[in-house]
## 1
Amino acid sequence: MTQQINGQLIAEHNAQAAARVNLDYETLGEQLARRNVDTHVLKDQVARFAVAVPSWGVGTGGTRFARFPGLGEPRHVFDKIQDCGVIQQLVRCTPTVSPHFPWDKVSDYQELRQHAEAHGVGFDAVNSNTFSDQKDQPLSYKFGSLTHADAGVRAQAVAHNLECIDIGKQLGSKALTVWIGDGSNFPGQSHFRRQFERYLDSNRQIYDALPADWRMFLEHKMFEPAFYSTVIQDWGSSLLAAQTLGPKARCLVDLGHHAPNTNIEMIVARLVHARKLAGFHFNDSKYGDDDLDSGSINPFQLFLVFNELVDAAQTGAAEFDPAYMLDQSHNVTDPIESLMTSAVTVQRCYAQALLVDRTALTAYQDSNDVLMAAQTLKQAFHTDVTPLLQKIRMEAGGAADPVLAYRASGYRKQMAAIRPASGPSSGIV
Ligand code: LRH
Ligand code: MN
Ligand code: MN
């Protein structure tokens, strides 16, 4: 295995942290014991939590106005995988990478798979891209892809998705995520119903090509790049499509793809009820699809999403097996640092949601004790589970404080010496 961060450095970092982490962990254990929570059981549960890293997230992002490149950015998917390996080495809860095509296209996928294995990561859902034109692409997606009025463009977009499935098979993936930017910018530009029917027809062809043990994740987004209407703009259209396509199709919730203040946790509950929750693209936002670091703006919302997920798991919700992925863009931070802290934030919310006293909550709900029901959630949310997460990481060979260990390693500087600086450009990723 190719470990990018020196194991000795991590061991020394952890040795320095051990005394305080152990003391804090014991104190937390005492606190939780008073709430009848066995910290060791909790630790085992949280240690099994995993969230995938987006391959496109390790490069510096940008906006449509500008991109300010960072140092030592990955040059290609092999470098991206290497960076993802660093993240996994330090946080130990990101064992897979979600690749995006054609961005991550290579000539030999066995080589890529072996490269990933060597860096201690595997592959999660493959993402197709029919929202931008690629060099040498015969037909343009300017006016749509899977829903384009021209059958030739639709066929090209379908063929790309089929190729993604084929690549995914070679990489060991088990799901295809389809997000399209199709929609319209002016009233009258597109016929809403015919456009949706074309979406279903194209996706039917993709769905039929899925291997038996694969899933198709349909990702909705309210707006952008289309600013008047989007074909799959919300969970309603997504659910309708997933139900029409069949059992392998499910709805993926990207937290940034809703109007501000939307009750996303309730959408999650509805999709669980419908047995159609595919999973998540975690990120945070203030205004729109900001792709900010998970939990950086509204950690309580993330906790409330996990509250629904833990409730679903504990009550044995049917066909409940969500996939967890990050989907963020890092414009002003080191992407590795942002992805590490985000993965830990998501893991933290899971741990906090496991702390909700569900028996008490149900009793308060059933007796209409509004204040105590709300307080029951807040008690779990206010619990600082940092020492628990540190202990889990240290026991798994990760770092007590991933960002500090990463900075001490000098990895970014080393990469800056090897990987040439990219020029400033615009673009979402
Ligand atoms: C669209 C989206 C989708 C894409 C990714 C780059 O906004 O969330 O998941 O594949 O960004
Ligand atoms: Mn997304
Ligand atoms: Mn997005």
## 2
Amino acid sequence: VWKEGSRSVNTDVSSVTKSIVNHVQTSLARQAYNLDNLGAYQAAALSVRDDLILNWNETQMHYTRKAPKRAYYLSLEFLMGRTFDNALLNLGLKDQYREGVTKLGFNMEDLLEQERDAALGNGGLGRLAACYLDSSASQELPVWGYGLRYQYGIFQQLISPEGQQLEQPDPWLAGGENPWELPRLDVSYEVRFYGTAERLPDGRALWQGGQEVLAVAYDVMVPGCYTKNTNNLRLWESKPKRGFDLNSFNAGDYEHAVESSNSAAAITSVLYPNDHTNNNESRDRSQLSYTHLVGKELRLKQQYFWTAASLADIVRRFKNIGKPFSEFPDYVAIQLNDTHPTLAIPELMRILIDEEEIPWGKAWDIVTNTVFYTNHTVLPEALEKWPVPLMEHLLPRHMQIIYDIVLHDEGFSCKVHRQAVLLKSTVLTKSSAVEKKFPGDRDRLARMSLIEEGFPKQVRMAHLACIGSRKVNGVAELHSDLVKTTILKDFVEFEGQSKFSNVTNGITPRRWLDQCNPELSALISKTLKVDKSVWLKDLDRLKGLLPYAEDVEFRKEWAAIKQRNKERLAHHVETTLGLTVNTNAMFDVQIKRLHEYKRQTLNILGVIHRYLTLKQMSAAERKKVNPRVVFFAGKAAPGYYIAKLTIRLIVNAARIINADPDTRDLLTVYFLPDYSVSLAEVLIPSSDISQHISTAGTEASGTSNMKFCLNGGLLVGTVDGANIEIAEAVGENNVFFFGHLTPAVEDLRYQHMYRPVPVEEKCPALAKVLDKISGGMFGDGGVYEPLLNTIRQNDYYLITEDFDSYIGALEMVDQAYLDKEEWIKKSIRTTANMGKFSSDRAILEYAESFWSIEPVKVT
Ligand code: 26Q
């Protein structure tokens, strides 16, 4: 049981109530007797915040004193969700607060519901960053996160009566003060954009003029679980350097004065809602908001603003230790969460060369021993590229440095260098190391270049991230192999295997089991006869549940908890949407960003197939069918027309199917609007099965697959991403796999392109479903034609190829569900074998094999 270090301000119930009442009267300046839930939540949050601040302060002082090597996790997204419950659980104060607020006449669950999600992320990548912060603090590792403090997080999703997704802003900070952050108005840096970069004879450059913007720090406290260690997430807010441009103001040009101040504030105003592509504006047929984001310049500004402020902060902290820059990599590791912070590489070069006057070669050594790059996708359309003219305009000095990286090599004198840069030659042609290793292989040189030829030329950020990093990793075994054999193949052949590796993603069991499924957590502690403070930080201990799969009583308890979690979800749907859910049905869940590669379309087509099959059955046959409820949730990028059309099909199919008296006891479908971390916390513990059905080779890892399985839901999926490792861990007999394998995908796509076979021939069952949709079964069929045509024409994501085996897998699910006891055993064995997928394991792999950092315990 966690004892040491548990000293905090509010450890017993009476000091909790005292502290809450005190905050009501002082911080909120309100009376305790007519307080609403919101006020009570705010006061309780401020009370927990007091504890967090003490721990946070002590931790930061301790790290400063000890000066260990630190790691910095640079991510444009941190999808934190709510903090209150998580903080209480990590501090071990949940019971005291529950009792305390009850004494004050409130209900804990109601108070928890008052908090708005911090939704500063799109999906998997942002949530992964949040899980890694939790694990870093829990493992007592000196890790800081760096991100942006967006005024608006991921948009709120509304669904119109026609089934159209509508986007609303998410002003998550509008409710007044955010108790979980500490404004650090004293910590600020100036960040420059535009201007001119003039090369000096000594190899340095003078970057002057342009626009200067202020970055101001806000620190978010990240408590570890059952430890005093409380790490920091530093988020930057942009501000005009002076209130407004005084020169313009004095000259009477008020408009210009205000405009430049507005453009500074705009940098951190909103999270970009695209995941996987920046380039779908041309497909943007929606008339709605977010049109102001179509320009790419603001996104690039966000990236530079954030990397520049973070690096200035990191360098300042390093300088305080008083060591020479040659030792920088012994004190600093910087992890790039995808290519979004790749500018950290030329920016660190700029600081070292122009400001610290370190020669090119030494500076490059420092950078390439400090920076690490995680890739999260191999989808070609998702690889980040920036037009050279835009880079030259916005970041002239960085563009010079990128050219210099291209050109820099043993064979080049400074003079050749400058000349080449003046001529703006881009592709390496002469005497480069690549040329030496592969003489005459011009195709290879072009493929590997940092600059892609074209109109305009573009900087390939993945190539820059790769050559500027110490290590490159993918996020699941299959994905890491694909990185090495596809997008970075040439670099593996050039630099060798050892730079490239894998760290399979993980999830924090604190939020994704203890917090979201407290009853299951309690049953596990009782059964293992160990306190949760032990197994939550040593998740392999779940293996101890295996023998209990054979225990009838245990299975009963296990199943009863799943049932209550279904009822909790049903209650949520009832109160938020006014819909009744059949809790005697199998719960089948697919929740994730809407994307063609994730194939929500396959799922809804499967649902419609099931509906048509049920309609054809006799009443007697129907009696044998197991009832099923299918849940969907997820957001589509505002400009992603096909993804929005998929939502529309799901919503309208649901409307027709749910209203059919012949089938509605056996099949219902729900699209739950406005998917969020908090909604996931209700959905995940309730699932019997969840779907992770991407075309093989397209989903880098997936992390919700891990969350469902940890909560005893079984997985239906393709042989893709982390599904593969989950199956290895829990046993293939406990998952439902279907579909073509990765090596087949390329050939099949080729066939679709050059020897297309009509859907009617390839897959009659699917053709029938498509015909029903076209025929208007779910409203005007014409509306769906663009979506259906993606399948009838190229079928890039191979829905026709996988449909039959998908339906087959769902039939296996029905079969397996008939044997209830055996099903519960599968569920127990699944949870018991999920230890590997703790983000503690993942973060320790980063700490040990990449960063070389060690725990620094705050005592
Ligand atoms: C890039 C350029 C311009 C605008 C936006 C973007 C952008 C933003 C977000 C590109 C990608 C993302 C997010 C990607 C993401 O969430 N990837 C997921 O990462 C998870 C964690 O590793 C994996 O589990 C998922 O498989 C992967 O899809």
